[in-house]
Amino acid sequence: xxxxxxxxxxxxxxxxxxxxxxxxxxxxxxxxxxxxxxxxxxxxxxxxxxxxxxxxxxxxxxxxxxxxxxxxxxxxxxxxxxxxxxxxxxxxxxxxxxxxxxxxxxxxxxxxxxxxxxxxxxxxxxxxxxxxxxxxxxxxxxxxxxxxxxxx
Length: 152
Ligand code: FE
Fold this sequence. Notes:
mainly beta, seven-stranded mixed beta sheet, 45% strand
């Protein structure tokens, strides 16, 4: 594991060695790189068929690369399927849904906090690089796993 005290160096992390950490009902993330210093993170997101990530707003841009399955945003008119690259500008508000019977896996590079919104558009929860790291740490502690991946 790299820490903030260690100099940055080239790193190769077999993703198979990292755990799927539950983040919501039917939604898991695999932490590849979490940078609390820049507030950005790179993770694989896995979602069960018919899963949903509640409506949220991105403070920074997001880039996605769909590896398996397909999904769409209720607010947009396109569907992202395996092989698709997705760009979401800062400020985008959307609700991610998996409509088919197949799970999806997508690599997301998230360049800033995510504000989860209620029906009235009020912020109910904020996800950050730090909160992702905290969730990952708790998962590792609860399952006797070593904190792995690139934490810088
Ligand atoms: Fe999003």
